[in-house]
Design a protein that fits this description.
This protein is an alpha+beta fold. It has a single domain, classed as Double Stranded RNA Binding Domain (2-Layer Sandwich), CATH 3.30.160. Helices cover 17% and strands 32% of the residues.
């Protein structure tokens, strides 16, 4: 899987997509249960090293049906958090 790094307003956005239902004890994956998403928002320092980051869970009522849908929702959610449009979520301190 490709790691996609996106930049928005000087911050880096890393989508995090994972299975909605963990593997069974026997190792079986449950792709049909859908996917959940989160996003890691990072700021780089002057020497181009990672200075701070925070992970935000994408708030949704139900799992995403595909990883692509979860990835797009993650990027969109990150932009809304950065713009201060998600109640209770802030990038203050990044």
């Amino acid at each position: 899987m490709n790691n996609t790094i996106r930049s928005y307003r000087g911050l880096e956005i890393y989508p995090l997509v994972y299975a909605h239902q963990p593997r069974s004890v026997d190792g079986t994956r449950h792709h049909d249960a859908g996917y959940d998403a989160a996003v890691r928002i990072c700021r780089r320092g002057a020497d181009n090293t990672l200075s701070t980051s925070r992970v935000f869970q994408v708030i949704t009522g139900s799992p995403f049906s595909t990883t692509g849908d979860a990835r797009m929702a993650s990027a969109s959610f990150a932009e809304r958090v950065i713009d201060g449009m998600v109640a209770g979520q802030s990038i203050a301190g990044l």
